[in-house]
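Side project, low priority. Logging it here so it doesn't get lost.
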Amino acid sequence: MVGDDWYSFGLANMEREVERMIRSFFSEYRERMAFRRGQPSPQVDVYESKDQIRIVIELGGMIREDIEVHVTSDMVIIEGEKKEDEAAGEKRKYICLEREFGPFRRLIEIPGAVDTGQIQAEMKQGILSLFLPKIVDRRKRRRKILIESKD
């Protein structure tokens, strides 16, 4: 019986990992396709410490009013629009144009259990930092349930 429990536990973990890999692949694929169409794709770093996961997004030239951040149980969604700095009515003939402008959307998978109600965000010098406090993921914890007799 113990072997069966371990086998079921292993399959459940493998299933979750495969689902995560598929979501990650298609998320990255959508982002690459957006980049090829000339849409901005801000650079992102994700790292963790003992108490939190931190997401840092490079958004140079943008202001916070042009950015929206949403969170689900397992995903952070960053949307916005990088606008071209236009002088009123000025027509430009570009010699070189390497910067990207337009709407963007980044989907970042949260790599662990976090308290989504306590996420904090700050923007400084074109860098958006998100602070996601970790919580204990009780879904993976196993405990025995006592069965009462109703006879």
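Brief comment: Residues 38-137 form a domain with the Immunoglobulin-like fold (CATH 2.60.40.790).
Revisit when time allows.
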